[in-house]
Amino acid sequence: MAESTGDDVPSASTSSSEPDDLEKKIIRQIEFYFGDRNLSRDKFLQNKIKENEDGWVELSVLLTFSRLKALSTDCSLIAGALRKSTSGLLEVSEDGLKVKRKSSDPVPTLSLLSPEDRKDMSNRTLYMKGFPKDSTLDDIQDFLLPFGETEMIRMKKDLDKQFKGSIFVEYKLVDSISKVLEKKAELKYKDELLTVETKQDYFKRKDAERKEKKAQSRVESSSGSATETSKDTNGTTFIRQEGAILHFTGCGDGTTRETLKEYFRQFATVAWVDFQKGDTEGYIRFDEDGGAKKAYDGAMANVPTGEVCKICDSDVTLKVLEGEEESAYWEKMKEDQANRKANKGDTD
């Protein structure tokens, strides 16, 4: 996301110099906050904008956000940096204490993405693996910037919230994807050759690995393995895994199984979505141990404290099933399978 500009007509003192490295990071971070992708789902910031009829937000409010606070807590420095931006997204108040999106670029509202929108986003997204696990978001942003402006970077993390060394990066333009792919055979980060795939190729590969894993598990089960297998409500063989069930509630009329699958598969491999259109709640089963926790952490990564996840313009509450609740879910699936067999006379 591009960063904000200063006043409509910058003074000579604010336009006479290029932003230094720190100022560029400040610009990039604040423009991310106010950019379409983040602002359309950030209820906290949306509410702050609505509190002032002109849409101004105090810089002191933004300084409660950890990433900006880590860069600087000096309002005059932050205001000066924003006035050097060339994106035209934001304006800074005359006293340098407030910022807002320009009236010509109104605050976006979250709506259900069309299939064309989703395809466009997917076409502008890459998967990359091979970054050192101590890499920071700023390090990775600086590395990716020569290929073009990024819309969103998601650093994949393990159950302990430690960076795994892989990311999804959504660029603003498809041309940036082409530039990266042209270099992928030799693309290195700190002398480490990176794995680079389109988002589509990444999910195709993961789906193939999942099918191979299931096939292997069935072989092991038939040869006496202790792995517990059964069939879900669709008749598909499944493997019981720990920490793989995510419960969700609060869905609106626009939510479908496909939109849920598309949303959560960016965080972990989805095995099955237990949901019917018109329901307000359901379950997602992931195809790996701990998959529900990975999906929960991914979905909540950019959600302000105290808020809930936004899916298809609905406030959705997420919960990872554990203990008795998790066991009860698996038992219900086994019971449903037994009932189907009884009803059909299935002795399989």
From TrEMBL:
Residues 16-109 form the HTH La-type RNA-binding domain. InterPro entries: La_dom_prot (IPR045180), La_HTH (IPR006630), La_xRRM (IPR014886), Lupus_La (IPR002344), Nucleotide-bd_a/b_plait_sf (IPR012677), RBD_domain_sf (IPR035979), RRM_dom (IPR000504), WH-like_DNA-bd_sf (IPR036388). Its main location: nucleus. Residues 239-348 form the XRRM domain. One of its GO terms (molecular function) is RNA binding. Residues 218-234 have a biased composition (Polar residues). Keywords: Nucleus, RNA-binding. The keyword RNA-binding applies. It is found in: Nucleus. PANTHER family: LUPUS LA PROTEIN HOMOLOG, LUPUS LA PROTEIN-RELATED. This is HTH La-type RNA-binding domain-containing protein. The lineage of its organism: Eukaryota, Metazoa, Porifera, Demospongiae, Heteroscleromorpha.
